[in-house]
Design brief:
133 residues, 5 helices, elongated, cell membrane, G protein-coupled receptor activity
Length: 133
Protein backbone atom coordinates (compact mmCIF):
# COMPACT_ATOMS: atom_id res chain seq x y z
CA UNK A 1 0.00 0.00 0.00
CA UNK A 2 1.12 3.51 -0.79
CA UNK A 3 0.83 6.13 1.98
CA UNK A 4 -1.67 8.87 1.20
CA UNK A 5 -0.80 12.54 1.01
CA UNK A 6 -3.08 15.01 2.85
CA UNK A 7 -4.68 16.20 -0.41
CA UNK A 8 -5.71 12.73 -1.54
CA UNK A 9 -8.99 12.35 0.42
CA UNK A 10 -10.54 15.10 -1.72
CA UNK A 11 -9.29 13.40 -4.87
CA UNK A 12 -10.67 10.12 -3.53
CA UNK A 13 -14.15 11.56 -3.06
CA UNK A 14 -14.00 13.11 -6.54
CA UNK A 15 -12.92 9.82 -8.05
CA UNK A 16 -15.70 8.02 -6.16
CA UNK A 17 -18.24 10.51 -7.52
CA UNK A 18 -16.72 10.17 -11.00
CA UNK A 19 -16.88 6.37 -10.76
CA UNK A 20 -20.45 6.49 -9.45
CA UNK A 21 -21.51 8.76 -12.33
CA UNK A 22 -19.93 6.48 -14.91
CA UNK A 23 -21.32 3.34 -13.30
CA UNK A 24 -24.82 4.84 -13.57
CA UNK A 25 -24.21 5.55 -17.25
CA UNK A 26 -22.87 2.04 -17.76
CA UNK A 27 -25.91 0.58 -15.99
CA UNK A 28 -28.28 2.62 -18.16
CA UNK A 29 -26.39 1.58 -21.31
CA UNK A 30 -26.54 -2.06 -20.23
CA UNK A 31 -30.25 -1.77 -19.55
CA UNK A 32 -30.89 -0.20 -22.96
CA UNK A 33 -28.82 -2.84 -24.72
CA UNK A 34 -30.56 -5.59 -22.77
CA UNK A 35 -34.00 -4.28 -23.74
CA UNK A 36 -33.04 -3.93 -27.41
CA UNK A 37 -31.45 -7.38 -27.62
CA UNK A 38 -34.24 -8.95 -25.58
CA UNK A 39 -36.88 -7.55 -27.91
CA UNK A 40 -34.85 -8.67 -30.92
CA UNK A 41 -34.57 -12.24 -29.64
CA UNK A 42 -38.21 -12.43 -28.59
CA UNK A 43 -39.29 -11.23 -32.02
CA UNK A 44 -36.87 -13.00 -34.36
CA UNK A 45 -35.79 -16.22 -32.56
CA UNK A 46 -39.12 -18.01 -33.14
CA UNK A 47 -38.91 -17.08 -36.82
CA UNK A 48 -35.42 -18.54 -37.23
CA UNK A 49 -36.23 -21.69 -35.23
CA UNK A 50 -39.33 -22.18 -37.39
CA UNK A 51 -37.22 -21.74 -40.53
CA UNK A 52 -34.89 -24.53 -39.40
CA UNK A 53 -37.85 -26.75 -38.47
CA UNK A 54 -39.44 -26.09 -41.86
CA UNK A 55 -36.23 -27.07 -43.63
CA UNK A 56 -35.95 -30.32 -41.64
CA UNK A 57 -39.52 -31.60 -41.53
CA UNK A 58 -41.77 -29.31 -43.64
CA UNK A 59 -44.33 -29.38 -40.83
CA UNK A 60 -44.92 -25.65 -40.22
CA UNK A 61 -48.25 -24.23 -41.42
CA UNK A 62 -47.94 -21.24 -43.74
CA UNK A 63 -50.20 -19.07 -41.57
CA UNK A 64 -48.02 -19.66 -38.50
CA UNK A 65 -44.92 -18.85 -40.50
CA UNK A 66 -46.54 -15.58 -41.65
CA UNK A 67 -47.41 -14.62 -38.06
CA UNK A 68 -43.80 -15.16 -36.98
CA UNK A 69 -42.55 -13.11 -39.92
CA UNK A 70 -44.82 -10.22 -38.96
CA UNK A 71 -43.66 -10.51 -35.33
CA UNK A 72 -40.15 -9.79 -36.59
CA UNK A 73 -41.42 -6.87 -38.65
CA UNK A 74 -43.11 -5.48 -35.53
CA UNK A 75 -39.73 -5.54 -33.79
CA UNK A 76 -38.29 -3.43 -36.59
CA UNK A 77 -41.20 -1.05 -36.14
CA UNK A 78 -40.52 -0.77 -32.41
CA UNK A 79 -36.84 0.26 -32.78
CA UNK A 80 -37.60 3.91 -33.68
CA UNK A 81 -39.74 4.06 -30.54
CA UNK A 82 -37.27 2.30 -28.23
CA UNK A 83 -34.19 4.30 -29.22
CA UNK A 84 -35.59 7.77 -28.36
CA UNK A 85 -37.04 6.48 -25.10
CA UNK A 86 -33.71 5.27 -23.77
CA UNK A 87 -31.00 7.22 -25.60
CA UNK A 88 -30.68 10.96 -24.98
CA UNK A 89 -28.10 11.43 -27.77
CA UNK A 90 -30.42 9.80 -30.29
CA UNK A 91 -33.24 12.06 -29.12
CA UNK A 92 -31.09 15.17 -29.57
CA UNK A 93 -29.94 14.13 -33.04
CA UNK A 94 -33.48 13.44 -34.20
CA UNK A 95 -34.65 16.74 -32.72
CA UNK A 96 -32.21 18.61 -34.94
CA UNK A 97 -33.57 17.10 -38.15
CA UNK A 98 -37.27 16.46 -37.55
CA UNK A 99 -39.48 19.56 -37.38
CA UNK A 100 -41.94 17.87 -35.02
CA UNK A 101 -39.22 17.20 -32.43
CA UNK A 102 -37.34 20.52 -32.61
CA UNK A 103 -37.45 22.82 -29.62
CA UNK A 104 -38.73 26.33 -30.17
CA UNK A 105 -35.98 28.83 -30.92
CA UNK A 106 -33.66 26.18 -32.35
CA UNK A 107 -32.61 27.02 -35.91
CA UNK A 108 -33.10 24.46 -38.62
CA UNK A 109 -29.78 23.18 -40.01
CA UNK A 110 -29.23 24.03 -43.65
CA UNK A 111 -28.30 21.42 -46.25
CA UNK A 112 -24.90 23.05 -46.72
CA UNK A 113 -24.04 22.89 -43.01
CA UNK A 114 -25.16 19.26 -42.90
CA UNK A 115 -22.98 18.29 -45.85
CA UNK A 116 -20.01 20.16 -44.37
CA UNK A 117 -20.54 18.44 -41.02
CA UNK A 118 -20.82 15.00 -42.62
CA UNK A 119 -17.76 15.42 -44.81
CA UNK A 120 -15.45 15.56 -41.74
CA UNK A 121 -13.77 18.68 -43.04
CA UNK A 122 -14.32 22.38 -43.11
CA UNK A 123 -14.56 24.55 -46.19
CA UNK A 124 -11.56 24.34 -48.49
CA UNK A 125 -10.24 27.34 -50.38
CA UNK A 126 -10.18 25.61 -53.76
CA UNK A 127 -13.63 24.04 -53.42
CA UNK A 128 -15.65 26.68 -51.66
CA UNK A 129 -19.38 26.96 -52.28
CA UNK A 130 -18.94 30.01 -54.50
CA UNK A 131 -16.53 28.12 -56.77
CA UNK A 132 -18.88 25.14 -57.01
CA UNK A 133 -21.95 27.25 -57.85
Amino acid sequence: QVPRAPSQPLAGSESRRFTNKHSKKALKASLTLGILLGMFFVAWLPFFVTNVAQAVCSCVPAGFFDVLTWLGYCNSTMNPIIYPLFMRDFKRAMGKFLPCCRRSGEPRPSAISLSMRNSNSGPRAATSLKNVL
